[in-house]
Fold:
Amino acid sequence: MFQTTFLDYLKTELPANTSTIEAVATALDISYDAAHRRVSLKSKLSLDESIALAKYYNLSLDRLFETTSTEFVTIEKTKHIESEAELQQYFEDSYQSLLPLLQQKDSTLLYSAKDIPLFYNLNGDALSQFKYYVWLKLLDPQLANKSFDNFAPSPSLIIAGKQLGSLYSNLNTQEIWDITTVNSTLKQIHFYFQAGQVKSSTALQLCDLLQQLIISIFNKLMAEDHPFLLYYNELHLMNNNVLVSTPNNQLLYVPFTLLSYYKTEDKHTCKEAERFLTKQLQNSKLLNTAGEKERNRFFNKLHAKINALKQLIEATELLDFE
Structure:
């Protein structure tokens, strides 16, 4: 059954007028007769041959399970990050993974935002560089004792980040936020300020940039020509899951460490995630169409959090007990 499912999938992915037998023979470097026996199911495809075919024609082995079981899912894991070079590679790989999906007409991206979506922190400004600093500080032992003022990300890292962030600028996106979505960034600024790794003037600058980011998201929400929907959910905790949907398939990204994630194209799993996220949307307020009072109330709460941190930093600097 697996072989039949896999070969049927292969046929749908081959260019028009391409012989399946010829395709198998080419990929496996076997004779036409040997390929015919495998396509006609007279001979079994070995595991190595199945993997070779999948790699040669860029096929997902998830399909072997989609029609036979809903309990097993094939996933792909991003590489572990322990250096600036590996963070740059992560940006580049993520760009290459998303680009062909998001270039398809009518593609959408649904983001359950426990934290401010990654794409907003990749424009190369001081706030995005601070996020690079935080990520690498936790992942790269060489940065253990380096302050933010002495941290200088390479131009190639900034370029790779901007390239990934550019995918998000005009994309048809739906984001689900809560008031707590900004908390992790605020905590990071506060923590490294208290640890003496960020100067008070720099910490205040980061708060100002965070407020500018919130304002830009508000402006994007109000722009009638931008395909962006922002939902406010007071009930459920977000989890940073991302569901990309195209006319032909879906792809689910599930975080498992600070930046790394699992991704799968498994149809059953993506549909289950879509149903759950749809329920979240139904229990959320769409701020695009909400009344001015409700919309301003949400954004004012975000700004109040940022202002509270600014006041704490200024008070600490003024008192200077330590």
Notes: The two ends are 71 Å apart (CA to CA).
